[in-house]
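Hi R.,

Here's the chain you asked about this morning:
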Amino acid sequence: MSVQQDADGVGRTSGAPHPEHVLSVHRITKAFPGVLALDDVSLKINQGEVRALVGENGAGKSTLMKILAGAEVPDQGSVEVAAKILQFGNPRASTQAGISMIYQELNVIAGLTASENVFLGQWKSTAGWISTGALNKSFRYLSERIGTSVPPDVLAGSLPLGQQQLVEIMRALSRECRVLVMDEPTAALGPEEREHLFSVIRTLRDGGTAVIFISHDLDEVLQIADTVTVMREGKTVITGLAEELDKKQLVSAMLGGRTLSSVGRPSAEGSRSKPRCILNATDVKAARVSVDSFQLNESEVVGLAGLVGSGRTEFLEALAGADPYASGQLSRDGKSIKWPRNVRAALQAGIALVPEERKKDGLVLSLPAAENVALPALGRNLSFSGRPSPVIQEAVERVGFDVTRLSTTTGTFSGGNQQKLLLARWLANPVEILLLDEPTRGIDIGAKADVFRSMRSLADGGYSVVFASSELEEVCEHADRIVVFSGGRIVAELPNGSTVADVLHHAYSVDGKREVN
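And here is the predicted structure, written out as tokens:
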């Protein structure tokens, strides 16, 4: 079989008939001030097809999906769903047409049950009373359809992320979804949850639902997708069958001739024989965490590895003063200090956290980029007119952020650029210890390289860096030392050069041991 690409960006198998196009995007163009987000984009997606959409942050994926969801109006072009013209700028019209979106930040109402979330806005009542029995019956039908066992009467907020995601999928199916758009659906899932999600996606595909799967994980893209479309600079550049593509081809199409600079660990040769310990935390107790001892050396990059729920995030939050109930003993440069009970106390100790949920916990999306970078010391870093100081400009340039965009509202940036702003914040407002929780979650391959390059530059400049990541390959490649968490405890410390298999061996406690090497 050979892959062809026509003017509409449709990958087809030569000589094979294709099913009905359930979604047709015709020559969509969308410009924002100073940016052409979409440039004459056309796509056709078939009924019962899993279409992966990949590209660097800023390639146009999110803008296109917002147009489909009714959140943005294009400057020109049209969209058809099941041969009917889609009304732009109307989320209800998109839903009624059969388009459903599941965003990376899930949209469940924690205080309602799983069943109430699925049928939100569709509750049927008799004399003002909602029939819980009828809701639960319909819920169980949808559960059987996708092969899940989420209880209908459990509060949605108490469910793990994987099951909250299934609740959103069931909500989409309850509204007769024809096209399901999933934005980074596996970013916060563990291996078992990912496999279950893939099984659900295949079930949806076999039932005739088209799935648009947006991900920066090219391995999973090639695993789950039937067809892959690559976007670059607002255009579609490649559409082909997943079975006839590989990661090298996809990366080449995404970068368009650019190359990624290698960011490796420095050679151990010539390093200090006795590195200076700048932080020692002992007897740490926090939510789901009990750590006997953790040390961090000067100019070191330490990776925290482990499965989802292993306690990495809770440990970082405890060190950063983000958990007021955490406790422990802490020393800095060999001197005991009071355990930080709040973020201000941690900053005074030279410890800062870049949180996992950058939009919710790290940034003020309505503020310009410069003000977000300057937040810890606005008066020092911004003039009365709001003009950024040279310190701010130098900081953003060091992390690869375009200094000409400092006056742009932060919420309009891609995830990669938002993450760069958080890194720049702690260059402009120096600390000694920088904690990063999932620093590459939801960002593209180019931005990931920039983040790791910045981390290494920080370490070379005297910072000590601790980063937690669910991407074990990243931890093994970029950490000087790997600390493995399992069940809220440190179960191993591994040297650089360790493999993913080494990490998983300890994360799963293969030998039943829970000890530090």
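One quick note: The chain has two domains: 8-107+178-255, 277-507.

Cheers,
M.
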